[in-house]
Amino acid sequence: MRKISVFGATGSIGESTFDLLMAQGGPAAYDVVALSGGRNVARLAQQARALRADLAVTAFEDCLPALRAALAGSGVEAAAGPHALIEAAHRPADWVMSAIVGAAGLAPGFAALSQGSVLALANKESLVTAGPLLMAEARAHGATILPVDSEHSAIFQGLVGEEISAVERVIITASGGAFRDWPLERLARATVEEASNHPNWNMGQRITIDSASMFNKALEVIEAKEFFGFAPEAIEVLVHPQSIVHSLVGFHDGGLMAHMGVPDMRHAIGYALNWPERMPLPVAKLDLAAIGSLDFRAPDPERFPALRLAREVMEIGGLAGAVFNAAKERALDLFLEKRIGFLDMARLVEAVLSEMSARDGLGKDAHNLDMVLDCDAEARARASAICEQGR
Ligand code: NDP
Ligand code: MG
């Protein structure tokens, strides 16, 4: 039986992964090593019981008593805290889902690679903050990273059987998020509630707001560079409101391979789960006749400064991705706390990036995770300080 661990099991990607594991035989088909969650320990315990996991880990120490109580009599071991997450990721597994949200997902994913497993990577922040380190760790231990982000899964599928040298461009599609048709003046007043409603995809709150600001797409452009090794200028972004075409690969003979499907993350997760095979999945069939037409348009750089910032980050290289992501995470916290407006998020990220890029060595690659995490902490602190000064 395949040994499986799921980090971030209680989140949106985690729940879809849980669904697929249950649909594909549950505890009779998989030997579940570890499941992790955050504050939702009741749900984590339910999942651990249903999948008969060896271990359930909450990221937060103060949640341990509640987790222990919820697991009483189940035989599932309970643990808590960032170190317990890393210890869990070191337990041998053949397939590990990395679906913690934010930079907190970096260290557990990194630890999973060290035991040579397949890492199904939803946590794009890992590649944005520490792409070269992560890819080198995978190579060093013979581990395989499979993309779970729908766009990158689409590109990965489009590349099967192709020579990477024949690829001229990739086109990452973007729905445009909750505010794609809003006038710029109105965006300044957009609320947390308004930004938390994605028109097509049902996702966690943070990535949903990142979709509205296009920070999600900015992270994905960097993710594509780090994962596939494409040159920044070969990576294009195209707004496609229906979210049916998940991305395209363009070859030097002019051909474009588009990956299409309904917007349901269980496709990309299931592809990674069953790779290199394809298995039937509980995903709706796409009815193109019912949809009728598909629209595409270029993203408006004025409305989406995040995309320009992603280009700057790739130009600087090295630790700039860690700064960008951390400043973005802090800006999002401040927006969620209603301390800054929707458009202030990009301004704040740009200010942190410009302060820190003046520093020596930002463009140099990190030698280890600690360098990335230090940079992450400094960027968050600077974002908080700039926000305070502006008040
Ligand atoms: P959610 O917010 O829905 O879930 C996040 C998961 O991480 C939960 O299990 C949560 O626990 C846990 N968690 C929260 N904080 C911490 C922490 N500090 N340390 C450890 N674990 C923590 O996120 P999503 O599922 O939407 O996204 C997960 C990842 O997948 C992100 O990197 C996102 O960018 C990526 N992704 C998501 C897509 C989607 O469709 N949702 C699509 C493509 C990529 P709890 O809820 O118990 O507190
Ligand atoms: Mg995506």
Structure commentary:
The protein has 391 residues and is an alpha/beta fold. It folds into 3 domains: 146 residues, NAD(P)-binding Rossmann-like Domain (Rossmann fold, 3-Layer(aba) Sandwich); 140 residues, no CATH class; 73 residues, RNA polymerase sigma factor, region 2, helix turn helix motif (Rna Polymerase Sigma Factor, Chain: A, Orthogonal Bundle). Helix content is 47%, strand content 15%. The strands form 2 sheets. It has a 7-stranded parallel sheet, sandwiched between helices. Helix 11 runs parallel beside helix 14. The radius of gyration is 20 Å and the shape is globular. The N and C termini lie far apart (57 Å). The site of magnesium ion has 4 residues, from helix 7. Magnesium ion binds next to helix 7. Its EC number is 1.1.1.267. Keywords: Isomerase, Isoprene biosynthesis, Magnesium, Manganese, Metal-binding, NADP, Oxidoreductase.
- The helix-strand sequence is EHEHEHEHEHEHEHEHHHHEEEHHHHHH
- The CATH architecture classification of the largest domain is 3-Layer(aba) Sandwich
Tell me the distance between the termini.
57 Å
* Percent of residues in β-strands: 15-25%
State the helical fraction: 40-55%
Strand order of the largest sheet: 4-3-2-1-5-6-7
Query: What summary fits the major beta sheet?
Result: 7 strands, parallel
The Cα radius of gyration reads 20 Å
DSSP strand tally: 11
Outline the low-pLDDT stretches: none
Indicate the CATH class of the largest domain: Alpha Beta
Q: Tally the helices: what do you get?
A: 17
Given the helix and strand composition, which structural class is it?
alpha/beta
